[in-house]
Each structure stands twice: as C-alpha cells, then as structure tokens.
Amino acid sequence: MVVVVVVAAVLVAAAALMALVRVERGPSMLDRALGLDLLTVSLVCAIAIEAVWSRRTETVPILLALSLVGFVGSVVIARFGVRQHESQGSGRSPEPDEAPEPAAPSEPGAEPGGGTTDEGGRA
C-alpha cells in the first residue's frame, strides 16, 4: 500500500507542477484557466490520497465541495471565454442555420445603395 500511495502522490505532484507551468506560460486566459482547473483537480486528488492513507471518511464532504467549486469555476470561465470570443468576432463562416437572408430582388431603376431614382436620375 505504501508503494501505491507514494506513486500516486508523485504523479499528482507532477500534474500540479505541469499545471503551474501552464498557468505561468499560458498565452491566453483560457490556457491559464485550464491550468487552474488542473491545480484544483490535483488538490482534490492529494486530499483523496491523504484520506485513503489515514483511512478517514471525514474528508469526503471536502472533496465534494472542492470538486463542485472546480466544476462551477470551469463552466463560468468557459462561458466568459465564449462571450469574449463572440464580441471580438470569430472570423468564421456562418453555420447553415445562421445564413443571412437573401437580398430582395432589385426594382428597375434602383440604385446600388438602395435608393431609387426617377426618370431624370434624381434620388
């Protein structure tokens, strides 16, 4: 059992270290958010390893609360990132259901700007 706990602790520590690197280097806000989410998961795993090692069940509510906070935080950051992306313009082509409506057929004598002219060419 000692070997399993030590291996699990080393793997969790490595994941936390890589998450810190992602938080520090992440070129975008979403990369940093992903790193913080991974840090939350690493903390939950470390507490779970400690609970298994000491055979205590009192830490289960703490694990549940931390998992819930991590999930809600990830959802909030993802929604914020989508809104920020939409406000900047995604530069993508519209989906089939988002296609713009076709323009109405132009009438004879219609100007390209949308105005009409009379016989004398006046607007």
Low-confidence stretches: none
Q: How much β-strand is present in the residues?
A: under 5%
Cα radius of gyration in angstroms: 28 Å
Terminal CA distance reads: 89 Å
* Largest sheet, strands/sense/barrel: none
The assembly state of the depicted protein chains is single chain
Number of strands: 0
Q: Which term fits the overall shape?
A: elongated
* Helix content percent band: 55-70%
Task: Briefly note the structural class of the backbone.
Answer: mainly alpha
- Series of secondary-structure elements, N-terminal to C-terminal: HHH
H/I helix tally: 3
Average pLDDT score: 82
Descriptors:
123 residues; mainly alpha; 3 helices; 64% helix
Gist?
With 123 residues, the protein is mostly helical. The protein has 3 helices and no strands. The protein has helices at 2-25, 29-54, 60-88.
Structure description:
- Helix content is 64%, strand content 0%.
- With 123 residues, the protein is mainly α.
- Helix 1 (2-25) runs antiparallel to helix 2.
- The radius of gyration is 28 Å and the shape is elongated.
Question: How do the helices and strands line up, and which of them pair or pack?
Answer:
Elements: H1 2-25, H2 29-54, H3 60-88
